[in-house]
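Known limitations

Structure tokens in this collection are predictions and should be treated as such. Users comparing against experimental data should check residue numbering before alignment. To illustrate the layout, the record for GTPase Obg is reproduced below. The input appears on top and the generated tokens appear beneath it.
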Amino acid sequence: MFADSARIIIKSGKGGDGHVSFRREKYVPNGGPDGGDGGKGGDVIFQVDEGLNTLTDFRHRRKYAAENGEEGKKRNCHGKNGEDIIVKVPAGTIIRDAQTDKVIADMSGGNTRQIILRGGRGGKGNQNYATATMQAPKYAQPGQPGIELEVRLELKVIADVGLVGFPNVGKSTLLSRVTNAQPKIANYHFTTLNPNLGVVDLSEGQGFVIADIPGLIEGASEGIGLGHEFLKHIERTRVMIHMVDAASTEGRDPIADIYAINKELEAYNPDLAKKPQVIAANKIDAIYAGDEDPVEKLRQEFEPQGIRVFAISAVSGKGLKELLYAVNEMLQGMDREPVVFEQEYDPSTAMYLDEPYTVAYDEEKDEFVVEGPRIEKMLGYTNIESEKGFLFFQRFLKDQGILEELENLGIQEGDTVRMYGLSFDYYK
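Generated tokens:
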């Protein structure tokens, strides 16, 4: 069975506690502190496995936990770091926070490996707390706790072209004829219950990936039938082939069908209705001579809207070459980068949102100072040397209202902002 969604619990490892001990040797009766630091807890890492194409494995195992870090040891020995846990998922998997439904990560495009939850930092041993006045500290820092989170995994098929239309209009037949896919085909409604992928090979090495999206019905955008399960797979496609039964073999009006499906697409996600599309008027071999030409009616209705109509027969193959080359030409003029969903939530930083921070202006040094445990820990978790990390840190400052507070204090472009030894020039 094709599984395209799952809910699992993930947990990063707790940092090991710092150790309290004192050097005791035969000729050193009053040695100083030598308690070592605790090991870092293991991370939860998601990694794309090209050999997977469903989320079925997650139905048999619901909890994934990284290893805790070891406690520090005597003689300044560092505790062992906890082992990371690697969770393998198919390409196209979106990881969402189960409570807020916000996107944590999208395992698509070049994102094949990402740390989702970072392990807790190891605590410092008592050797770190010795001072001139406190030479025998009897305390150490506890390890930072790990993070436990329920996430929802959602697999969105990665395809260049989405094949949409009401049930039983011939989508599976078309897919089986123009690709290497072998969908199950029969003459009844909701024939296809799983998205089927196939590769269309054209001349000179050109081609594209096409997905037969299961038949939609009116009300799908409201979750009627299996609407949401089907509609989500169209979000990554760049072009849609809208297939209709031009011969009305089941008494349906093809023009009304197209408007009905487009309405469902727009209701689910307005961006879907804006995607380029072509109309494949199928079953032309079942149109009787002498009847009013339904394909011409489709052209008169939709071509003034910029939507081309192709008369085809998925059974005989008539008109398929013209359709496929036209779609390929559309794709050539578009951005080849896949649709990747932006991160909306980082659970590694969310646990610090209730901790305080201050924003102030230092007149003596003529710079703005941002401090507090929330900022210090965020800096510790973010690699601001990388462009991606720095942009993420900027977004964190904006989301927390820190940039707004700086502006309220009168900061201007080019002014200096200091955070724990790091200085930045402020620019909007």
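For this record: The two ends are 50 Å apart (CA to CA). The chain has three domains: 1-155, 161-332, 352-425. Please report discrepancies through the issue tracker.
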